[in-house]
Amino acid sequence: MPQEPKKRHSRQRQGKRRAAIHLPVSKLVKCPNCGKEIITHKVCKYCGFYKGKEVVKKAKKEDKKEENK
């Protein structure tokens, strides 16, 4: 049978262990179309472009005002 721990680990020790397990910070690059900072390999949420092509059609503020009227 597998062995079990003899004593319970404290919360402080548990926190130290979990602090070492972390996700890396994702890299940011400038969008070639609008120049804002975006996550790599993702569609720009500001202009909707990916690799120089428009993937998502973004409505501008002026277009939204005309739709509401």
What share of the residues does DSSP label as strand, in percent? Answer: 5-15%
**Which series of helices and strands comes N to C?**
HEEEEH
Strand order of the largest sheet: 1-2
User: Mind telling me the C-alpha Rg?
Assistant: 24 Å
- Strand segment count: 4
> How far is the first residue's CA from the last residue's CA?
74 Å
Helix content: 25-40%
Report the structural category: alpha+beta
Which features would summarize this protein structure in a list?
69 residues; alpha+beta; two-stranded antiparallel sheet; 14% strand; elongated
Describe this structure in words.
The chain is of the alpha+beta class. It has a domain at 24-68. The protein has two helices and four strands. Strand 3 and strand 4 form a beta hairpin. The mean pLDDT is 85.
State the gist of this model.
Helices cover 26% and strands 14% of the residues.
Secondary structure elements and pairings:
Elements: H1 11-20, E1 28-30, E2 37-39, E3 49-50, E4 53-54, H2 61-68
Antiparallel strand pairs: 1-2, 3-4
